[in-house]
């Protein structure tokens, strides 16, 4: 696992985000446009050439593997490649998660890129987003927790569009945290999930440092 330390200031984080977030948003627009475009085949082929040129430009300098999760020395996390919340990841909706002890909540708009059954949210996407949310809820007042078991129940189809989600810790037993989560549309809950989150035994960063108490960690940058 990559939890490297990157010694930068909050101002530098803001500066970097101000550059990459608009780019990621543009790539989200690109993904949506490719899915829904009805321009001619010739224009689609021309678009491919332009996109290939951008990819070649970005690949001139590239880190190997994945982005990982860097932390500052003040333990501000930068999970910018994360599939659900990554600021650099156009695959992520992204979720803007509000946290309080034992609770994680967010509102989101899921468009064409998240489709499973026609017009509906893909079940795997719903599970992905709820998995992130239960992880965030479990980690608000404890050490980081990994998903041991996630049970998802799809109550009725979730239509693409504006949605909300919520995860709440229901109980803790030693290193295990039990979390209940829901995804809802305007008419109520469409998906619910129950998770057993587990803090790995003797969790330390690969740098050898233990994580500080949760109150000193900020996971939202
Ligand atoms: C940090 C900021 C927020 C981040 C949010 C991120 C959200 C993303 C969430 C994820 O997607 S995490 C990625 C998906 N999950 C994984 O990759 C986990 C892979 N599995 C493991 O790493 C280990 O198997 C695990 C840490 C889950 C457990 O390993 P341990 O060696 O610590 O478990 P151990 O065998 O000591 O068992 C401890 C307790 O947990 C129980 N347990 C172990 N594995 C379990 C499991 N899979 N499901 C349910 N319970 C489990 C086990 O029975 C026991 O219960 P008791 O204490 O009551 O005896």
From TrEMBL:
Its EC number is 3.1.2.2. It is found in: Cell projection, Ruffle membrane; Cytoplasm; Membrane. It catalyses: octanoyl-CoA + H2O = octanoate + CoA + H(+); dodecanoyl-CoA + H2O = dodecanoate + CoA + H(+); tetradecanoyl-CoA + H2O = tetradecanoate + CoA + H(+); (5Z,8Z,11Z,14Z)-eicosatetraenoyl-CoA + H2O = (5Z,8Z,11Z,14Z)-eicosatetraenoate + CoA + H(+). Its main location: membrane. It is a peripheral membrane protein. Pfam families: 4HBT. Residues 118-191 form the Thioesterase domain. Keywords: Apoptosis, Cell membrane, Cell projection, Cytoplasm, Fatty acid metabolism, Hydrolase, Lipid metabolism, Membrane, Transit peptide. The keyword Lipid metabolism applies. Belongs to the THEM4/THEM5 thioesterase family. This is Acyl-coenzyme A thioesterase THEM4. It comes from Gordonia alkaliphila.
């Amino acid at each position: 696992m990559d939890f490297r330390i990157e010694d930068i200031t909050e101002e530098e984080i803001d500066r970097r985000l101000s550059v990459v977030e608009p780019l990621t948003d543009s790539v989200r627009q690109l993904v949506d446009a490719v899915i829904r475009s009805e321009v001619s085949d010739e224009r689609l082929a021309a678009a491919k050439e332009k996109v290939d040129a951008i990819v070649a430009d970005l690949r001139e300098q590239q880190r190997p593997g994945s982005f990982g999760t860097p932390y500052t020395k003040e333990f501000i996390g930068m999970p910018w490649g994360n599939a659900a919340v990554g600021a650099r990841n156009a695959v992520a909706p992204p979720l803007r998660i509000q946290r309080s002890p034992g609770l994680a909540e967010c509102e989101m708009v899921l468009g064409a890129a998240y489709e499973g059954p026609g017009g509906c949210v893909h079940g795997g996407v719903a599970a992905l987003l709820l998995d992130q949310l239960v992880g965030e809820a479990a980690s608000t007042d404890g050490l980081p927790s990994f998903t041991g078991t996630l049970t998802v129940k799809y109550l009725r189809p979730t239509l693409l569009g504006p949605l909300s989600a919520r995860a709440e810790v229901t109980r803790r037993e030693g290193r295990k945290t039990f979390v209940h989560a829901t995804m809802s549309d305007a008419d109520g809950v469409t998906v619910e999930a129950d998770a057993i989150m587990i803090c790995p035994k003797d969790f330390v960063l690969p740098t050898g440092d233990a994580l500080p108490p949760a109150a000193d960690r900020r996971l939202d940058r």
